[in-house]
Amino acid sequence: MATTTATITLSSADIQSDVLALTKQATLNKGGTTTGLEQTTGLNKVIYTATTNIVLLDSTVLGVGKAAKVYIANKSTDASEFVLITINAQIIGRLYAGDWMFIPWSQSDAAGNIELAPSVATALPVEYMMIHEGATQTSA
Amino acid sequence: MATTTAQLVITSTDLLSDSLSLSAIATLTNAGSATGITQTTGLGRTKSEATSAYTLYDGDAYPAASAHKIYIKNLSTTAAEYVIITANSEPIGRLYAGDWLFMPWSAHDDASDIKITPSVSSALTIEHMLFFES
Hints:
heterodimer, A: 140 residues, mainly beta, Jelly Rolls, 5-stranded antiparallel beta sheet
């Protein structure tokens, strides 16, 4: 079993009158267990050159109801550029230049894909990674 | 203007044959600009005692097409306990005991509420925080 941790640190000295300094760590386990997740897509980097909505991660039977974790980062340096993240066609949010997200993904059903639509057709780099329990392999 | 940062570090020495040490840091800004987000709900704590869906953040209360950010952590210590996170009723994922999430939220329409549905009717506590623009 692998041991993988994800740590978030939220910091601000001036968003409120009390200093924000929150650090939390999660160990990435299979759903409902203390057994570590063992599979990953690896860290992908893709440069998008169209505004077409694309399937970033395809929901599969083996992933339904599981405890996959997904990391996505918009690596653009132009503040106005974003990627629109949707799950099963429902809008989650806009990931602007430099933003990242880290979410659980339970793949509610076969239609629960994570999709991404770049705001520009110029080269927009995105990094993403899934750490998961299993994914259905496509037959050749 | 406030300066708020969110840093992620993912590490593992045995998930792959190459050590994993991924770091990403974001400065939280208003949509499409370099101006820092200036508003927050503060860090909140909510205890549920039913398996009903709870509205954590109301899509009607925040402007659409924005760069809001949401942090949620399941504080349970029982591995089997989770909360289902939904946006506009679409399940995003199960946040198991000890897990956290950080994600953008566009609040694109009045129905795009962020809700949680606990897996148990015994006490289950989550912490949560929203950074938002007006």
